[in-house]
Specification:
The chain is an alpha/beta fold. The protein has a single domain (20-325), classed as Rossmann fold, CATH 3.40.50. 43% of the residues lie in helices and 13% in strands. The protein has helices at residues 29-40, 52-71, 97-110, 137-160, 192-213, 243-254, 261-273, 295-298, 300-313, 320-325, and strands at residues 20-24, 44-49, 86-91, 116-119, 164-169, 219-225, 283-286, 289-291. β1 (20-24), α1 and β2 (44-49) form a beta-alpha-beta unit. α1 packs across α7 (261-273), α3 (97-110) runs parallel beside α4 (137-160) and α5 packs across α9. It is globular and about 55 Å long. This is Retinol dehydrogenase 12.
């Protein structure tokens, strides 16, 4: 299944000039390092974030680090291609389906192409209260809103040209999920790590469902386990997690088994930009390489149950015309 710890293989010499990429949740952690690196490789990067203030602070920090890394090769983690970073904030609140649709409409109105849609934003250990749309919050933020975003932006991905990619940042925690067709959103599940893992299972199942429907379209779909990464999602001391999860997080920190955010971003960067994967699809990555999966996420019948359930959840936001594009 591939190692979860250690440093993944580094990126090859890549140039992305002329490409446009969206990274959700790009103001911190893995998303920040992903967005900065893709911009340093020459692409235009849209930081799709909920907070304009935090996104602008991230952009300023990216530009300062870029200047330093360009002036000192020892500080650079990649072969930098860009003289200046082309990064732009656009508001996206994945806790709101209306915000997700608005983002897609505003992106289309700008007339930008789209070479990579990198669905990175996520949450764990969120509140018990549902979103304003009435959905379990992890289900909506990690999975449902990204699904809606993909459907709305598929026409742009298809029109952009050869080798456009959708990258879903999943997690090894998909192995600690549950499949319950009577409780698809895990409203009745009290263990937040199981809830989180189930949303990550859904992302992988979505990859297979999309890849089947997009066969021959030259749009690739990948999912990624970034490793256990020292980011905000694992840093809170008041997380209402199970004893076993607390022991796991303590052990990975104490044994220095957690990756830093850049090393955590590497696997998603390979999926998003490494030309060796041109023309491939439905690959699950760990430690920067495709790996095998257990039977549950590969179960096509269950994938179709999830697909139909998801469309029912989104029936007010999805049209038949949109589904004809898939």
């Amino acid at each position: 299944m591939g190692a979860s710890f250690g440093t993944p293989p580094q990126l090859p010499d890549i140039e992305l000039k002329g490409k446009t990429i969206i990274v959700t949740g790009a103001n911190t952690g893995i998303g920040y390092e992903t967005a900065k690196t893709l911009a340093q490789l020459g692409s235009k990067v849209i930081l799709a974030c909920r907070s304009e203030e935090k996104a602008n602070q991230a952009i300023q920090r990216m530009k300062e680090e870029h200047i330093q890394e360009r002036s000192s090769e020892k500080d650079a983690k990649i072969i930098i291609k860009a003289d200046e970073l082309d990064v732009e904030f656009m508001p996206l609140d994945l806790g709101s389906l209306a915000s997700t649709v608005t983002f897609a409409k505003e992106y289309k109105a700008k007339g930008y192409s789209l070479h990579v849609l990198l669905c990175n934003a996520g949450m764990a250990w969120g509140p018990d209260e549902p979103t304003a749309d009435g959905f379990e919050i992890h289900f909506q933020v990690n999975y449902l809103s990204h699904f809606l975003l993909i459907l709305h932006l598929l026409p742009v991905l298809k029109a952009t040209g050869n080798d456009t990619r959708i990258v879903l940042i999943s997690s090894l925690m998909h192995r600690f999920s549950k499949w319950d067709p009577h409780d698809m959103q895990c409203f009745n599940e009290r263990d937040k790590m199981t809830v989180y893992g189930t949303t990550k299972l859904y992302q992988i199942m979505q990859m297979f469902s999309l890849a089947r429907r997009l066969a021959g379209s030259k749009v690739s779909v990948f999912s990624v386990h970034p490793g256990v990464v020292a980011t905000e999602i694992n840093s809170r001391e008041d997380q209402p997690v199970t004893r076993s999860t607390k022991i796991f997080l303590w052990a990975t920190k104490s044994l220095r088994m957690m990756r830093n955010p850049f090393d955590g971003a590497l696997t998603g960067l390979h999926a998003a930009a490494n030309p060796v994967y041109d023309g491939k699809t439905a690959l699950y990555f760990e430690s920067s390489k495709p790996q095998s999966l257990t039977a549950l996420p590969r179960d096509e019948a269950k994938q179709e149950i999830l697909w139909n359930y998801t469309l029912d959840c989104l029936k007010e936001y999805v049209t038949e015309e949109m589904l004809n594009v898939v």
